[in-house]
Specification:
The protein is α+β, with helices and mostly antiparallel strands. The chain has 5 helices and 7 strands, in the order E-H-H-H-E-E-E-H-E-H-E-E.
């Protein structure tokens, strides 16, 4: 059974194991914490800094480079019973386009991919968005990720628009879903 759990100090060793696995097998690295930590040696990983980012973003204290885009964000570890299988994030963006929206980002560790965890994580994150009384969900789909496309269809996300990513310089599609 997949559960969302806020990162805690007691998860440090499992997180380091997950980062080590990602470093061995490669990306995609998501959410942003994973990408950052995968670019540094695990023995130098500052887990206290990870917990601080999780806490700060949850309170709306975002890094300066995110201030124009992110109001707040909630990070969750994805646990299947006691095993850490990935990480999820809900970003509550600064936007004039949408009245209230939560953007879903999911990263499943390489050894746990293609086992249905991403689908289960989307279901759990959509429930969290609803609990927070947010009326819309968004997924930004990198066209190189076929599994995201299947999940968006399964949850009836609708195409919204496309643009070129400033980071990857690749075309990405935006999909949204109205929540009841």
């Amino acid at each position: 059974m997949l559960t969302l759990i806020k990162p805690l100090l007691e998860h440090k060793e499992q997180y380091k194991e997950m980062i080590t696995e990602w470093q061995q097998y490669g990306g995609p690295y998501a959410p942003c914490i994973i990408e950052y930590d995968c670019s540094n040696p695990v023995n130098e990983l500052d887990y206290d800094a990870v917990l601080k980012v999780v806490d700060d973003y949850g309170k709306g204290n975002v890094f300066e480079y995110d201030e124009d885009f992110v109001k707040s964000a909630d990070f969750y570890f994805l646990f299947d019973y006691n095993h850490l299988v990935g990480m999820g994030e809900i970003i509550y963006p600064v936007t004039d386009t949408y009245e209230s929206i939560g953007q879903i980002i999911i990263g499943i560790r390489p050894s746990k991919r293609k086992q249905g965890y991403a689908t289960k994580a989307v279901r759990c994150l959509l429930e969290k968005i609803k609990e927070n009384k947010v009326r819309n969900a968004m997924v930004i789909h990198d066209l190189s990720d076929d599994s995201s496309n299947k999940i968006m269809k399964k949850f009836n996300f609708e195409y919204d628009h496309s643009e070129i990513s400033e980071i990857s310089k690749q075309k990405i599609n935006y999909y949204t879903k109205k929540l009841r």
